[in-house]
Amino acid sequence: MAENLQIRLAHPEEADRMAEIEAICFPPAEAASHEDVVNRMGAFPENFVVAVKDDKIVGFINGGTTDKPVLPDEFYHNITLHKKDGEIQTVFGLNVIPEYRHQGIAGELVEYFKDLAKERGKKALILTCKEHMIPFYESHGMKKLGVADSCHGGATWYDMQIWF
């Protein structure tokens, strides 16, 4: 693990900080709004994991759970699609602020989230990512399925998944 790094479940009062990080890490057309982050945190707080270094949150990972092995764009905005007892864990976003990148923090977040999903009895972890992120996720055991049926933010996304 990266030096002086703590990976843990997020606290509800940290939603504002996570919304700030989301705005830093994603282009405006792709970033979850402050309201979306707060709503997600209210609906599924157990699926927010933060990275803390130098006594501040420097990154986080989050996602909903579902019974469907695909991640439709609608899931990002409609928290009612989250099924707490769903068999599949999704990743909506993996965020590490720029000055803390290339230190292994994103990898630690992914591994923690995968382990958490397994501990909770989930059968798979799924996400969509941009092409340049495919090797990163493959290095964490995920398989590329191909171009996703997503037009989120006007970008091209790829479906990735790992079954446990």
Automatic annotation (TrEMBL):
<dbReference type="InterPro" id="IPR000182">
    <property type="entry name" value="GNAT_dom"/>
</dbReference>
<dbReference type="InterPro" id="IPR051635">
    <property type="entry name" value="SNAT-like"/>
</dbReference>
<dbReference type="GO" id="GO:0016746">
    <property type="term" value="F:acyltransferase activity"/>
</dbReference>
<keyword id="KW-0012">Acyltransferase</keyword>
<keyword id="KW-0808">Transferase</keyword>
<protein>
    <submittedName>
        <fullName>GNAT family N-acetyltransferase</fullName>
        <ecNumber>2.3.1.-</ecNumber>
    </submittedName>
</protein>
<dbReference type="Pfam" id="PF00583">
    <property type="entry name" value="Acetyltransf_1"/>
</dbReference>
<dbReference type="InterPro" id="IPR016181">
    <property type="entry name" value="Acyl_CoA_acyltransferase"/>
</dbReference>
<feature type="domain" description="N-acetyltransferase">
    <location>
        <begin position="5"/>
        <end position="164"/>
    </location>
</feature>
